[in-house]
Amino acid sequence: MNREQIDFDSPDVLLPRFGGATFSVKFRAMRLLWAICWFMLAAWTPRQMGWWRLSLLRCFGARVHSTALVNGRARIWWPGNLVMGEFALIGPGVICYNVARVTIGDHAIVSQRAHLCTGTHDIQDSRFPLISKPITLQANCWVAAEAFVGPDVIVGEGAVLGARGVAAKSLEAWTVYVGNPARPVGRRSPAAAACYAYKR
Description:
Helices cover 18% and strands 25% of the residues. It is of the alpha/beta class and 200 residues long. The chain has a single domain, classed as 3 Solenoid (UDP N-Acetylglucosamine Acyltransferase, domain 1), CATH 2.160.10.10. The chain has a seven-stranded mixed β-sheet with strand order 2-5-8-13-16-18-19. β18 and β19 (183-187) form a beta hairpin. Residues 1-8 and 11-18 have low confidence and may be disordered.
């Protein structure tokens, strides 16, 4: 498999050879340690301990603003690939499969049980190698409950992906999308989003 097929930030990534492991033993051990730490130290914490969860994420390499909020029931695959801006929010039950970088802009919201998935596979290759591409959620956008955002997708500023919507392609700014695949159904007012951001 060519190196161009994977876009990992980690220097510890080991490219698969003839069906071998995608990640090095060291990196898998680090991920195991992360999962244990989140389960033991953060998953049970109340909303008021958001500062503690952010501190734990930072210990594992996340770049998160001090006003961001990550619910304890969210599942972050690897903190080192997570960037969150001011008042960005990850809700309960969110799956953030960030094999590549996930960037969540200022005042952007990822609601309960949404899925941010940066990984897929090359179905034309018999080895079925992992392919990873980043996801960017721009400022003031909203990924609603149980929606899915796929690799290499940019959710434009102020855009809305409705509940259980599926975004396999980038979404235009200030546009409301619903369905699978997501299709535009209307526009969103920048003034309304600005008012909401102020209230938070």
